[in-house]
Structures are given as C-alpha cells and as structure tokens.
Specification:
It is built from ten helices and 14 strands. The chain starts with a helix and ends in a 13-residue tail after the last helix. It is elongated, with a radius of gyration of 30 Å. Helix 1 (3-16) packs across helix 4 and helix 2 (19-26) packs across helix 3 (30-44). A hairpin with a 4-residue loop joins strand 1 (49-51) and strand 2 (56-58). By secondary structure, the protein is of the alpha/beta class.
Length: 303
Amino acid sequence: MDRLDELAIFVAVVQQGSLAAAGRKLRRSAPAITRAIAALEQRFGTRLVERTTRRLAPTEAGMRLLERAQQLLQDYQAVVQDTAEAQLSGLLRVTSPVQFGRRYVAPVVMAFLDDYPQMQIEMVLNDRNLDLIDEGLDIAVRIGHLQDSSRVARRLGQVSRVTVASPDYLARCGEPSSPAQLADHATIVGTQRPSLREWRFGPQENGERVRLAPRLLLNDVEAQLLAVRAGKGVARLLSYQVADDLAAGTLVRLLTDHEPLPMPVQLVAQQAQHMPLKVRAFWDYAFERLSALPQIHPGVRGK
C-alpha cells in the first residue's frame, strides 16, 4: 500500500472515530483499514490509536503523527493542484472538417477558452483527414470510419449523406422516385473530390451507383446550399448541413429509402493512456457538448 495512502487512512480513522466509519468514508473494507493501521504502528514502533469504550482515540504518538500527516497530505494536494494548473496552459491544436468546425466546434473552443484562460487553441479546419502526428495535432473531429486503428476514438453521433432539393425545384421538375431518375435532373455537386460526381445509394458492397452530368459544380458547401435553396437542382450533402433547412421546409429530403448507411462522428486523439492534462480537459469538455448536438443524432431527419 502507498505510504501516503496509509497516512490518509490513519487521519480518517482518527477523524471518524472508528475503523468502520473510516472504511465507509474511504470505501475500503474493515480488514484493509486494520492492516494499514497495523503497518503504520509497526513502522513507527509504537501504538498510534487506543480503543475506548465508545471510540478510537489517538495516543500521544498518534497525536504527533496526526498533525504531521495532515500537513503532509495538504502539501501533497497543493503540489498536485499546482501541477494540474500548470498543465492546463499552453497551446492545443484541434482539427475538424470545415463546415462542422465553423458551426459546432468553434463555439465549443470559445467556451473552453473562457473557462480555461491560460489555454491557447489553434483550430485547423480542413476537409482532409490530417495526420495527427505529422501535423502536430492534439485532437481531431472526424466524420467517417477511422482508417488508423492505433488512434483512440470517442463516438459523438452520426450523420448521413442525404439528397435534397427545394420545393420550388420539385414543383417544376418533379420528384425522383429512384436513384436512376437523377440522370434526368439537374444536379449540384461539390468539386472537393472527383468521386462526388458519382453518387452511391444503399449498402457500400452492392449499392446502386448513379453517374452524374452536373449542371453546377461548386467547391464550397455554403455555395451548394445557396444553389439548392434557389431551386437550381438536386444536391447531396451531409445531414447536419441541411438539418435546419429540412426542419424549416426550405429543402425536402429525397430518396430516403435508398440512403447509404450513416457515418460516425468521432473525437480522435493519438492515445488514451498518458494523455496530457490539457488534452484530456478539452477531450472531455468537447465530448460533453458535441455529443449533445441534435444535428448528429438519427432523430433529426426533417421531412
């Protein structure tokens, strides 16, 4: 047993007045409390507590030890606190997809800085999955399944790729009832990845693929949203990006029976063991707030 732990048990026994009460306070068994006191008495070569008819009381040697033990434990706690506060300072580097970072991670970062004024945070918004070690990053928010199993991940929720159009567009051009009918519709696609010109529906293994001849190509999600709201065609975006529009009725969700499986949204770090305190602090802080977002839970669908 740790020597400081033995001293803490001795102090609890004297303060509580009995072995049983000290065990309840420390959530230790009575035999463990008894062994700790016996070990201390053997080490000091004298009795430290005496049993009276009502309670345990410290001997003269026990009183001297009690005073020194209390001071020692207080000093130890002060050192731990000072070390913790020192570690909750300095720079933390966090990465996230661009739109998700702007909408949800940035407010969490600003709130964290308010609560931890000694901290600095650098946000790196990038739709590529940057390597944590190569880029010197502490924590990442990832959308999709992890490729590197050596990283530690904490699931926040999930999102889906959804096909949407405006009510005005559907009134003019009709609503597709199958993915194949998208070939007859104007489509709006992003240019971040060439693969976005081919939309996949259903399961990854044997789903349906639709090759597109888009009318409008844009390299920015907000521009895609403006175009689809304006009735310029059918777009495919992540569910969190269109959640507000679906709830307001400015966009309509199409082909819901053909959607691919949802993708996880996760916090990712290099390792769980020996995580620096400043990283652990933001890890827990961000998890509590981001995991509560309704936009990354299946119940938020819209019509």
